[in-house]
């Protein structure tokens, strides 16, 4: 497939105190949540001057990706559009169309299968095409879920190696050190529908299975023999709705015989607010209260291996590379180019068109 451009697609974030509430209203639109309840989350952003780091991180990723594409001999401009804050997706698509772009390969800033980490992006692109009147003008395809790509996994391997070495240097025995792989919690019903029906009946569905596969690869390469577990963070639903557990703070409380903990934000591409607040602030405070030595490893960000992986994902689609020839480091990859019908759908929101595939 020949493409005219790359679409980098993100969540978005406020860039000043005046942006915080409007941004949170965008995130929760349609749910009728009053501003006084939104302020309970707003203080996370206000503690950092009302600025989420995610937009600047995506600017840096856009620059790095553009440079790496050029170095690979790919003359593809990179457009960037967000779900919840400027630059918005419809604006990015309108500009692309004005520039003569007709086919785009989209790179979401999320590596795994679930409604919020995959299908919602596909729905967002459909909405943006409709809002800009470009449904018959612009085609958007999506790179495969890239959780299993070695270039995504390598930054976590590097981080765990360095953190475990630091724990040992600080005098902590390997038997007293535990690695916690943390990702965003999602409703258990959503988790059960993730993974294209390949993990029906498996606890946590494809979402948990993919994270576990990555964690296994990281530990095998970085710290074989050390204790580890998959934990969750940042749940936001009503108490009556089951979400994936354990929460990282509950997992820290439950540790026994440990003096050091290494936290790996395996579910995240960059050090955005949920990493900085939920891990660097809240989880760190919990560990300190429990007397645990604490280290948090970096996210991929603009790590050269990660940026090269994104270029490789574009190249494999341009070349029509066979599945067996694609970069993959886990037992359950590489993933599909085209999501299966109904994969990761959210019945609570009703059926919505989702592009970047042959069927919705």
Q: Strand sequence of the main sheet, in spatial order?
A: 2-1-3-4
Helical region count? 11
How many β strands by DSSP? 8
Gross morphology is globular
Percent helix: 40-55%
The CATH level-2 architecture of the largest domain is identified as 3-Layer(aba) Sandwich
Beta-strand percentage range: 5-15%
CATH fold field value of the largest domain: Rossmann fold
Task: Please report the distance between the alpha carbons of the first and last residues.
Answer: 20 Å
Largest β-sheet summary: 4 strands, parallel
Number of domains: 2
Helix and strand content put the structural class at: alpha/beta
Using the CA coordinates, give the radius of gyration: 20 Å
Explain the overall architecture.
The strands form 2 sheets. The protein has a 4-stranded parallel beta sheet with strand order 2-1-3-4, with helices on both faces. It folds into 2 domains: 5-147 and 303-349, Rossmann fold, CATH 3.40.50; 151-296, 3-Layer(aba) Sandwich (Rossmann fold). β7 (260-264), α10 and β8 form a beta-alpha-beta unit. The protein is built from 11 helices and 8 strands. It is globular, with a radius of gyration of 20 Å. 41% of the residues lie in helices and 12% in strands. By secondary structure, the protein is an alpha/beta fold.
């Amino acid at each position: 497939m020949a493409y005219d451009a790359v679409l980098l697609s993100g969540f978005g974030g406020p860039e000043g105190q005046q942006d915080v509430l409007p941004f949170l209203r965008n995130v929760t639109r349609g749910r009728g949540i009053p501003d006084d309840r939104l302020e309970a989350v707003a203080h996370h952003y206000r503690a950092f001057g009302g600025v989420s780091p995610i937009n600047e991180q995506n600017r840096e990723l856009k620059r790095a990706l553009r440079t790496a594409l050029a170095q690979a001999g790919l003359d593809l401009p990179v457009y960037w559009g967000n779900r919840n804050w400027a630059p918005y997706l419809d604006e990015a698509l309108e500009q692309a169309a004005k520039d003569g772009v007709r086919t785009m390969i989209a790179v979401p800033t999320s590596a795994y299968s679930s409604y919020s980490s995959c299908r919602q992006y596909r729905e967002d692109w459909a909405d943006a095409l409709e809002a800009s009147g470009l449904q018959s003008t612009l085609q958007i395809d999506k790179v495969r879920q890239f959780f299993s790509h070695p270039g995504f996994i390598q930054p976590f391997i590097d981080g765990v190696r360095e953190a475990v070495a630091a724990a040992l240097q600080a005098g902590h025995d390997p038997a007293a050190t535990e690695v916690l792989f943390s990702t965003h919690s999602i409703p258990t019903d959503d988790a059960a529908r993730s993974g294209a029906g390949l993990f029906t009946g498996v606890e946590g569905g494809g979402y948990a299975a993919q994270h576990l596969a990555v964690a296994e690869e990281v530990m095998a390469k970085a710290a074989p023999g050390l204790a580890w577990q998959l934990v969750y963070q940042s749940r936001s639903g009503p108490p009556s709705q089951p979400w994936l557990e354990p929460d990282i703070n509950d997992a820290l409380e439950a540790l026994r015989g440990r003096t050091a903990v290494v936290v790996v934000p395996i579910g995240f591409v960059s050090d955005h607010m949920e990493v900085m607040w939920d891990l660097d602030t809240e989880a760190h405070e919990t560990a300190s209260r429990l007397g645990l030595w604490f280290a948090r490893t970096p996210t991929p960000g603009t790590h050269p291996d990660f940026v090269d992986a994104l270029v490789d994902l574009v190249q494999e689609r341009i070349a029509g590379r066979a599945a067996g020839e694609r970069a993959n480091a886990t037992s359950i990859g590489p993933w599909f180019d085209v999501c299966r019908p109904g994969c990761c759908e959210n019945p609570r929101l009703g059926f919505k068109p989702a592009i970047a595939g042959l069927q919705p």
